[in-house]
């Protein structure tokens, strides 16, 4: 029985080996047939006859091989339309090489609109950005058109146009884009029947940029719906006494410093005031929580302007933002202020903001003297307590350098302005004065608003000190009123911001 099993296993082993050899034989035969097929394409001068090989193949396999389809040849590429150069022969049979320039993409936009507002019965102001090189090296022009809604034959229903007067208020500080204010003043009152209409702006490059073209872009900048225009707005008394237009807020702002600033100035300007802040990325969640109580009380309006970051202008486009604020709210307040959130307006104890501004009412604009404060030098008396004190309470050393020109901030009667800058306006109707020393000033804590940690680096007990080559003198003007500011905040909004941190 065991012998038979061995014989059976031997038989199976032999069969498997012969089967493997059989497979190898068939594979080799198939390979030879394939080679024979390729010989069909070999020239007749070759030693082996292709017909003989085909005959051999037909005897081995009765099934002819399936012919393989020949792929189509690719079509030749179209001739290029781009020409870089060519030879030119002039009338003197002189040959020159003419070169060509082929533009791709696009340069800076011709005009980017932010807003358009009425400045009166017959005048409008359009605020936007435009290509800085276009204005530096060219002379772009603007035209305005009013298109009424009605179709009657009265004069008020006809389209009218006027030349736009442009102003560049950023003093050349623009980057890729510069700020442009276009004033559209028509020869007649617009929309007097209150039927509505729209204002169109035509912005022409006028040979600037690509001198081969004079491109004109047509854009709709303002729409007035029927029965919406209130013509009494332009001659009525302003509803507010004081208005604040803030520059672009950006970066990782210190919420505690913002808390102090808004409480201080709401107290200074009083209940008939309003503050507009512009968020260019700096009003993160903690800063918003600080502003929220004052927004709810109606003192603060927050505008999200983060989209302007797409366009490279000076300092987050603050010139454009301030001009938008001017024209948006120019009929709402008697006085409008322009300064930053690391600056504190101050009037002497025997004065009020009202008495000071009343004394300056003959001027359309006045500038404010700066008191530059150190954000690093503090009193040794505050050792161990600086983190609990408000910024203007612990920063009490003022820059004592004399005989230099310091930046000034300013306030205006906004109905007199056509455009404005950061430190003053050059486009206004009326007088300007810089003689305000002793009446009003501002304390500047440069950089403190963006510090999220303790700023005090040196604690001293002296009335005078020189630090980092700058002489300082002690000035406790704002420190002395810090307690009253804290009490005012507590009265207005309670304890909801007591846990605010830097």
Automatic annotation (TrEMBL):
Top-level taxonomy: Eukaryota, Viridiplantae, Streptophyta, Embryophyta, Tracheophyta
Keywords tagged on the record: Glycosyltransferase, Membrane, Transferase, Transmembrane, Transmembrane helix
Keyword Endoplasmic reticulum tagged: no
Cellular component GO terms held in the UniProt record: cytoplasm; membrane
Protein name: Glycosyltransferase family 92 protein
Enzyme Commission number(s) of this protein: 2.4.1.-
GO molecular function: glycosyltransferase activity
Pfam family, one: Glyco_transf_92
Source superkingdom: Eukaryota
Subcellular location: Membrane
Origin species: Medicago truncatula (Barrel medic)
Family: Belongs to the glycosyltransferase 92 family.
Chief site of localization: membrane
Bilayer topology: Single-pass membrane protein
Gene that specifies this protein: 11445314
